[in-house]
Every structure is written in C-alpha cells, then in structure tokens.
Specification:
alpha/beta, Rossmann fold, five-stranded parallel beta sheet, 5 strands, 18% strand
C-alpha cells in the first residue's frame, strides 16, 4: 500500500495540500494517509478532524518520508533531503518564484 504524506507549509501560507474530506477520498482509494502534526492549522483544519477522517497524525520526518508527498509550495533544500528515495512530490514548484 502506498503512503501519502500531507506536510505543513512554511511561512505565511494558509493553504494545506489536503483537507479532511480529501483525506477520506484518498483512503477510499486504498491509500494510507499521514498528516504532519499541525499541517492544517493555518487553514482551520485541526489534527482531530484529520484523525476523524482516518489519517494518522505524525511528525515531519515521517510525513516527508512517505511514498507520495503532497505540498502546496516548493520545498526547501532541507525538505528535499527528507524525501525517501524514489518518492513522488506533488505540488506547485513555481521555478520562477523567488522565496
């Protein structure tokens, strides 16, 4: 089974890559879903809402170590280093954007 990790965003970003509703849809498709603790806070989604949807709440390293990582913004170099070998990162990379 593939594990999908939802990770927290940095800085002033208030979006999150998945809501509790979309987590439920991913689970229905047969994926295991983990959410980094606090990842949805800025978007008004509490950890307990993700847990109620069936996700596991985990630390950052475990979320980044998933087979597939969902992210809104481009990762930092440090975050890229947290990705597992062969992992897939899904998000907006925005190569021309200066962070």
């Amino acid at each position: 089974m593939n594990r999908i990790g939802i990770v927290a965003e940095l800085g002033q970003e208030t979006r999150v890559a998945a809501t509790p509703v979309t987590v439920g849809k991913l689970l229905e498709l047969g994926y295991e879903v983990v959410v980094e603790k606090g990842a949805g806070e800025a978007a008004s989604f509490r950890d307990d809402a993700y847990e109620a949807a069936g996700a596991l709440i985990v630390g950052a390293d475990e979320a980044w170590g998933s087979d597939v990582v969902l992210r809104v913004n481009p990762p930092t170099e440090e975050e890229i280093g947290r990705l597992a070998d062969g992992a897939t990162l899904i998000g907006s990379l925005s190569p021309a954007q200066v962070l």
